[in-house]
């Protein structure tokens, strides 16, 4: 019996979308019609004086039965109004089509990334901007490589951007035991991740602040190998050349060190893999660089929406007809005053 009366619950009624919601404004008019009819009947009804015996005539509960036909008729009208308002529910399904871009972020986590010319330091600035870049992608698979003296694949290509955001946050200085900067090895690991991926475009974004000082694979050879597998390489040189702050000494005074980026090699790597080289001397410039790469490598993912609308007016129309037939039946019983009707 529960499904029969399920549509009468408040939660069910509140969950509908109404095709003609203004029709529902007629619901308060239903009891007003019966009050108006009663008022007119009182005015025009003929009066017959009857002499009662001495004392008060007691009322009986059976006198309330005469209101049953009116109640049934009111329910019939109310259900009819609900049916006219056309209750509906809409199911929406979204399908994405189009092949995204496969991207690998190769991030330098060597000791020099602790330098403070990019606040709070080079690594934290790179992580923050990279996370913003990831949040702006839609439908692309993105992987993560961390490198210092060696290179490791931290995360394979994935569309789980929350997991990628967590892994970017977890990048830290010293997570790769071997110190140094193995740019060629990092490019080799990134190429290995991207070479067999099904994306329509393969991109590697390399962030480093130094020159190649470790690894067995020459950076230029690695870039040429990446190009042979169809990879496009964007290289980003982090930090300023010259004297930059590097923590504090034992007396709390700021320390300074000399640093130099091998910009020539970074430009050659980008040119060998049909990409571009960018120099980021502060956090704002680094953010603009990622915004530019985002515009250059925009994937086209199309969304198709399917809407399926179900009508539920028949349920209330059947109730209205049932109540109407019941009212017609009650008109021929003792519950109806034939003199008034």
Quick description:
This protein is α/β, with parallel strands linked by helices. It has helices spanning 2-5, 10-14, 29-44, 68-85, 122-135, 161-170, 183-194, 219-228, 263-272, 283-296, 313-330, and strands at 17-18, 87-97, 101-108, 141-147, 151-158, 201-208, 231-238, 242-248, 254-259, 276-280, 302-311.
Describe this structure in words.
The chain is α/β, with parallel strands linked by helices. It is built from eleven helices and eleven strands. The protein has helices at residues 2-5, 10-14, 29-44, 68-85, 122-135, 161-170, 183-194, 219-228, 263-272, 283-296, 313-330; strands at residues 17-18, 87-97, 101-108, 141-147, 151-158, 201-208, 231-238, 242-248, 254-259, 276-280, 302-311. Strands 5-4-3-6-7-10 form a six-stranded mixed sheet, with helices on both faces. A hairpin with a 5-residue loop joins strand 8 (242-248) and strand 9 (254-259). Helix 4 runs antiparallel to helix 11 (313-330).
């Amino acid at each position: 019996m529960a499904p029969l009366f399920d549509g009468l619950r408040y939660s069910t009624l509140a969950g509908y979308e109404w095709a003609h919601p203004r029709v529902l404004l007629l619901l308060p008019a239903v009891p007003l019609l019966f009050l108006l009819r009663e008022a007119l009947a009182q005015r025009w009804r003929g009066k017959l004086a009857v002499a009662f015996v001495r004392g008060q005539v007691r009322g009986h509960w059976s006198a309330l039965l005469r209101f049953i036909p009116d109640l049934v008729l009111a329910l019939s009208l109310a259900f009819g109004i609900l049916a006219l308002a056309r209750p509906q529910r809409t199911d929406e399904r979204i399908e994405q089509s189009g092949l995204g871009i496969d991207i690998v972020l190769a991030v330098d986590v060597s000791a020099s990334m602790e330098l403070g010319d990019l606040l709070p330091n080079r690594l934290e600035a790179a992580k923050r901007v990279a996370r913003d870049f990831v949040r702006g992608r839609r439908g692309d698979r993105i992987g993560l490589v961390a490198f210092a003296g060696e290179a490791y694949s931290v995360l394979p290509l994935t569309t789980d951007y929350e997991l990628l955001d967590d892994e970017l946050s977890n990048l830290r200085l010293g997570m790769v035991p071997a110190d140094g900067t193995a740019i060629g090895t990092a490019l080799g690991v990134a190429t290995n991740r991207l070479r067999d991926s099904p994306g329509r475009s393969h991109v590697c974004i390399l962030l480093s602040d130094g020159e190649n000082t470790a690894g067995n694979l020459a950076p230029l050879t690695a870039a040429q190998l990446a190009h042979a597998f169809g990879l496009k390489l964007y290289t980003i040189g982090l930090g300023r050349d010259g004297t930059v702050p590097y923590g504090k000494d034992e007396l709390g005074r700021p320390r300074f060190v000399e640093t130099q980026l091998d910009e020539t090699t970074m430009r050659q790597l980008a040119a060998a893999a049909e990409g571009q080289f960018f120099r980021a001397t502060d956090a704002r410039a680094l953010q603009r660089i990622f915004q530019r790469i985002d515009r250059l490598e925009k994937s086209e993912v199309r969304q198709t929406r399917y809407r399926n609308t179900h009508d539920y007016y028949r349920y209330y129309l059947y109730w209205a007809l049932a109540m109407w037939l019941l009212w017609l039946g009650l008109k021929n019983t003792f519950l109806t005053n034939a003199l008034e009707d």
